[in-house]
Amino acid sequence: MEETQIKAILEALIFVSETPVGLEQIREVFGDLPRKDLQRILEEMAEDYNQASRGFTLIEVSGGYQFRTRPEYGDWVKKLKKIKPFSLSQPSLETLAIVAYKQPVLRTEIEKIRGVDSGGVLRTLLEKNLIKILGKKDVPGKPLVYGTSKRFLEMFGLKDLSGLPTLRFGRTRTASSPGGTPSFP
Fold first, then answer.
1. 57-93: per-residue pLDDT in tens?
2. Residues 102 and 178 reside in one and the same domain
3. In the chain, at which end, N or C, are there fewer CB atoms within 10 A of the end residue's CB?
4. What's 146's domain CATH number?
5. End-of-domain residue from the set 28, 54, 80
6. What are the DSSP calls for the chain, one per residue?
7. Which range of residues forms the domain containing residue 146?
8. What is the percent of the chain with per-residue pLDDT over 90, rounded to a whole number?
């Protein structure tokens, strides 16, 4: 099979999928095509889409490949689709950040950092499928252990957790916060 035909098939597979298509899923379709060849072709395609003047691009996100609207055209798509921007409350964002950076993490650890009960926020994040229960810790009471989900990676456009920004703690001062606060790159 010619590489141009392989690229066309890959486009079709990625286009029809509602979630990122993983390399193993693609290999099941192609069967005998070596993994390294598929990976190379997908990387070439992503580069081609990135160089082209198109309204979408091909990115690797959440362990798979997905066509995504270029960020600079997001407002236009929102107007057409009448999409309300996805938003999270401040407590949800705080809790999600703690789970993302500290996972696997217990509710008690989250509450110790936040200083307030986080049960309701955790339920909300579970309902939105941004976090998941990884299991139970083998200690008395068997508390639940939380971590981020594939949906979290998709929502934030991350290939994997290594794409999270590095936390830097500086001595940034504002009128409302006299002490040091975390700063994000």
1. 999 998 899 999 998 998 888 888 887 767 889 999 9
2. yes
3. C
4. 1.10.10.10
5. 80
6. --HHHHHHHHHHHHHH-SSPBPHHHHHHHHSSS-HHHHHHHHHHHHHHHHHS--SEEEEEETTEEEEEE-GGGHHHHHHHHTPPPP---HHHHHHHHHHHHH-SEEHHHHHHHHSS--HHHHHHHHHTTSEEEEEE-SSTT--EEEEE-HHHHHHTT-SSGGGSPPPEE-----SS--S--EE--
7. 90-183
8. 64
